[in-house]
Amino acid sequence: MTPSRIAIVLLVLAAGVLAWPKPEEGRVRAVVESAVSDFAAGRFRACTQALAEEFVDASTNPRIDKPLLVAAFRQLRFGGDDRTKGLFCRFVDGQPFEIELDEGERPSHAIALFSVEFVEIHPKASYIDPDAPVIWAIEVEAVLRRGEDGAWRFWRSSHRTLSGERPYR
To answer: Is residue 103 part of a domain?
Structure first.
């Protein structure tokens, strides 16, 4: 192999190593993905285990803490007062899903930026129409912290509406 080919191979390998996600980034991404899929499936115990006890969302006034968010999750997923409609949550296709870790060998904070959309469904639906109209789409910026047990949990968040309107006000 010629020196120029060796140099090209080394550059390709180096680029691959630099672009490869860090293990902690994968763990944070998995927490976010699990929380969204657990909400969509109505698994609130699993979904809320991803929230730190001191969780706060600062997007609204008053701020939303963990107990209030759990109640809101239930209402959003299983319907408003009449219980005939619920919302399904999914990631917005084509929107960024970025994870940024703090510096250091063992990061303790991460910022996740992602977008989700809510579509209306019957609370007991087993099939989600991929063409169902989007009721509300939001961009979320979440700060996750690693707990003493090593698990990543949502600690702070804020969101902004991309389209639609927040249901069940």
So the answer is: yes
Whole-model pTM?
0.78
* Strand partners of residue 156: 56, 143
Q: Is residue 108 one of the residues assigned to a domain?
A: yes
pLDDT digits (tens, 9 = 90+) for 81-92: 555 677 888 888
Centre a 10 Å sphere on the Cβ of residue 64 and count the other Cβ atoms it contains. 19
For CA atoms 33, 39, 41, 44, the dihedral sign is positive
| pLDDT one-digit tens code per residue, 17-73 | 334 446 899 999 999 999 999 888 878 888 889 999 999 998 887 888 999 888 888
Residue 30 lies in a domain: yes
